[in-house]
C-alpha cells in the first residue's frame, strides 16, 4: 500500500461478526454429517469449542496411512483423495471425497491407525475433533450412535459391492453399478473427475472414458462438466447385474 496508508483496524463489532460467520459455517458443516444430523445446536457448539480448525493448500497431506487416529478429521470445504502406496511405489486411490465428510470413523472408535493417506486435491478447510469428545458424544447420544452405526454399515455394504464389481464385472458394468448407487437425485457429481471414478471402480481413466461415452451413445446418461446425468436408471441397473 503506498505511503503510510493502512487499512483501518477491525473494531470489536467487526471481529464479533466474523467469529459468528465462522461459527455458523462450521455448525452447518458439522450438522451436514450423517452421524450428526438432528444433533441439538448446543451439542454442536460443544464440538466446535473442542475442535481445531485448519486450512491447507492443494497437495497437502492431511494424514498418513498407519498413523494413530487421535482426532476425527472432518472436511469442511474442498476435496481430498484417499490412497495407499504399495512397496513398489504404486498408488491406489480408493476414493475422492468432497465436503462435508468425516474420515476414519471406524478406526477412531476401534483405536486403529488411519486406513489411508488423505491428500488435498484443492485448497481445503478441515476440523479436528478430539477422539475423547467424539466417543463421549456417541456414548451420551443414542441417536448419534444409531446414525453412526448405520453410516458404518452402509460403508461396509458399499465396499462389498465395489469388491464384487471389480472381481465379476467388465468396466462398463462397473461404471453403471457405480452410477446406480449414487443416482438418487438423477445427477451424479464426479468429484475427482473421470480419474477419480476410474480409481473407485478399479479401472484406467481411458477405459472409464470409453465406457461413459458408450453409455451416452446408448442414451443411458448425459455427460456434463464435472457430473453425469442419469437418463435411464433401469437400463443401468440391468447392465450392472452380476452373473
Structure at a glance:
This protein has 243 residues and is α+β, with helices and mostly antiparallel strands.
Low-confidence segments, ≥5 residues, pLDDT <50? 1-10, 14-23
For the record, the count of structural domains works out to 2
Based on CA atoms alone, the radius of gyration comes out at: 21 Å
User: How far from one another are the termini?
Assistant: 69 Å
Question: Strand arrangement, largest sheet?
Answer: 1-8-3-6
Largest sheet: 4 strands, antiparallel
Number of helices: 9
Enter the CATH topology name of the largest domain.
Answer: Jelly Rolls
State the order of secondary-structure elements, H for helix, E for strand: HHEEEEEEHEEHHHEHHEEH
Structural class: alpha+beta
Give the oligomeric state: single chain
Determine the fraction of residues in helical runs and give it as a percent range: 40-55%
The level 1 CATH classification of the largest domain is: Mainly Beta
The averaged pLDDT comes out at: 84
Domain Cyclic nucleotide-binding: 35-155
InterPro entries: cNMP-bd_dom, cNMP-bd_dom_sf, Env_Response_Regulators, HTH_CRP, RmlC-like_jellyroll, WH-like_DNA-bd_sf, WH_DNA-bd_sf
GO cellular component, one term: cytosol
Protein name: Crp/Fnr family transcriptional regulator
Amino acid at each position: 500500500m503506498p505511503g503510510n496508508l493502512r487499512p483501518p483496524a477491525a473494531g470489536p463489532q467487526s471481529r464479533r461478526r466474523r467469529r459468528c460467520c465462522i461459527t455458523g459455517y462450521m455448525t452447518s458443516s458439522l450438522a451436514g454429517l450423517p452421524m450428526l444430523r438432528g444433533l441439538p445446536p448446543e451439542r454442536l457448539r460443544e464440538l466446535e469449542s473442542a475442535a481445531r480448525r485448519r486450512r491447507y493448500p492443494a497437495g497437502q497431506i492431511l494424514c498418513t496411512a498407519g498413523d494413530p487416529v487421535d482426532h476425527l478429521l472432518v472436511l469442511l470445504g474442498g476435496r481430498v483423495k484417499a490412497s495407499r502406496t504399495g512397496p513398489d511405489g504404486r498408488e491406489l486411490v480408493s476414493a475422492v471425497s468432497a465436503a462435508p465428510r468425516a474420515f476414519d470413523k471406524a478406526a477412531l472408535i476401534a483405536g486403529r491407525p488411519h486406513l489411508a493417506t488423505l491428500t488435498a486435491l484443492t485448497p481445503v478447510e478441515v476440523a479436528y475433533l478430539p477422539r475423547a469428545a467424539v466417543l463421549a458424544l456417541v456414548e451420551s447420544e443414542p441417536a448419534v450412535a444409531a446414525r453412526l452405526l448405520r453410516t458404518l454399515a452402509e460403508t461396509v455394504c458399499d465396499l462389498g459391492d465395489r469388491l464384487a464389481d471389480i472381481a465379476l464385472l467388465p468396466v462398463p458394468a462397473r461404471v453403471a453399478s457405480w452410477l446406480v448407487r449414487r443416482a438418487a437425485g438423477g445427477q451424479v457429481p464426479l468429484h475427482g473427475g473421470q480419474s477419480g471414478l476410474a480409481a473407485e471402480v478399479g479401472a484406467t481413466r481411458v477405459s472409464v472414458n470409453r465406457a461413459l461415452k458408450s453409455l451416452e451413445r446408448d442414451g443411458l446418461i448425459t455427460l456434463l462438466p464435472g457430473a453425469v446425468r442419469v437418463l435411464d436408471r433401469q437400463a443401468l441397473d440391468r447392465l450392472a447385474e452380476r452373473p
